[in-house]
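User: Structure tokens for both sequences below?

Assistant:
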Amino acid sequence: MKNSGIIVNIQPSAMKGQINVKKFLKAAALAGGALCLLKGLDNRLEVTHYNISSEKIPSDFNNFKILQVSDFHADNVPGLVTEIKNEMPDIIVSTGDLADDKGSFLPSVRLCEHLVDIAPVYAVTGNHDLWRGDYEEFERITTNIGVKTLRSERVTLNRGSSEIVLYGIDDPFSRKSVRASANIKTAISKLERCDSYEILLFHRANLFDYIKNYAFDLVIAGHMHGGQVRLPTGQGLVSPRSSWVGQSSIMFPKYVGGHYHAPHSDMIVSRGIGNPMLIPRLFNRPELTVITLHSEDIK
């Protein structure tokens, strides 16, 4: 009986220890999950810098700085104007969805009022812009403020005795058509191409495969929201629903954010700064992109 008593006394103690270990592991897992979620939902504005060098870039344009705003969606982004001012850009470009397809566009108007005080502003339309029933009114207001919206148009940027050319085309998609490639071809056919360094502003990064063979030196795009939900490694998980056309991938899309290379063209894609979706941006901080041109290779 003595031996039996000893065994009985040991078993509860061992079981108690096991329960404590399980509680500790559960608490650790919950704490780790909470920290991971907190990091994933970090919505502080991020500024990403890119350096683009080319023999076609005139020396007068060495260190020319282009700041890109994309996919604002009339959202509230704390610190946005201050960050833009701090970058001291030579020009500011908006690559679509400055407004959203519903709700007030006044936040976008107020942003534009700040932007034109910082640098010349050039814009192209995005799908959400064009889906607005009052888009023409929105463009009229922003034009009066000083924003130049490029709709199958070009502007020549001069510095010293040199020039580069900035083009812009409308978003090629509508809810009534999926003829993206044909729409792009028509829009580009209206442009007066030249031998200068050529930059194209275009909303839909996912359609780069339709654009790259036109050999613009640099394409600046947005639309993809960084894949909305991103793995900690940076891979975006899903395309916006409006991108489910043509050869675009729905899951793990090809072009979500960053610097992409093609034989005759490069593309910079912004992850955007607004969020019109119910799904939060996960591991996907709102992003401003800053592109600095260099007249020769950086050593």
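Moving on to the next sequence.
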Amino acid sequence: MKEKTKIKSVAVLCSGGDSPGMNCAIRAVVRTAVANDLDVYGIQRGYAGLLEGNVKKMDASSVGNILQHGGTILQTSRCPEFHEEEIRKEAAHILKRKGIDALVVIGGNGSFNGAWSLHEEHGVSVVGIPGTIDNDIEGTDYSIGFDTAVQTAVEAVDKIRDTAHSHDRTFIVEVMGRKSPAIALHVGLCTGAENIILPTTEDIDFDQIVSDIKRGISRGKGSSIIIAAEGEKEGLSHRIKEVLKDKYSIDSHTCILGHIQRGGNPTAHDRFLASQMGYIAVASLINGEVATVAAQRNGKVLSVPFKECLGKKFDTDPQFIDIVKTLSI
């Protein structure tokens, strides 16, 4: 690797919502850079921290004993100002003044678009590492944090199922996913939910939900679990509860899992994925690539063109829906 490098320094930041496994990616970026004699810098609080000049040099010891922890040691933030061209120009100047040749951005779609603009407008060498629990970035099969978020939600629903069964109750469990159906689908399938309501659902079929609940009751099943993605408007699970009560006389309980899905120790899968992505990110820069994403495709992590990962994926695999309907009878 060392003979191919044209860069002497690299910086890494996290942007947008945090996701379990970001620390693993930071660790891999820093240690891969150090191993190849590059100066490496950590930027605190994402793009906002970059604009503030909150940049510190890191070494191998800076990332010791962090891969098992959730969150991000570099912290993260959302930076609406970065939508402005003049603000991005200043960010590029800051990187240049500090002698930073390339930037690794760990985050989701908005973070990626900011990095791409830095490259397009100012020639900054950038690499993206997909880090979002929603798993909604185009061009990669998985993003860091998704597996942990699903596992956290599954464990919570398993506990709720115990109570639901003990009291013959229906529970509506709200998981994250404003636009992406990924968490709701995976959690619903893994927990044997009787119904799944996706953020892409335009009209909730309450008649079908009630029919499924009654079908279970008819065969001696007193409890039901409904998984609902949070959607873009707050209070979805409570609205579902009200309709079931007012229109169908079915009592139910709501449980909003919320931000516990973002926290916690990353799973082995997320640690493995993030470590590979961090390594590939720096390797691509050393190999002279200037605008790439470390993406997972067909089980392998590789460097792909940045432009292939700028969109969001919201499609629902029909097979998942068929499996859920078949197995929940």
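User: Anything stand out in the second?

Assistant: Residues 146-167 form the longest helix (22 residues).
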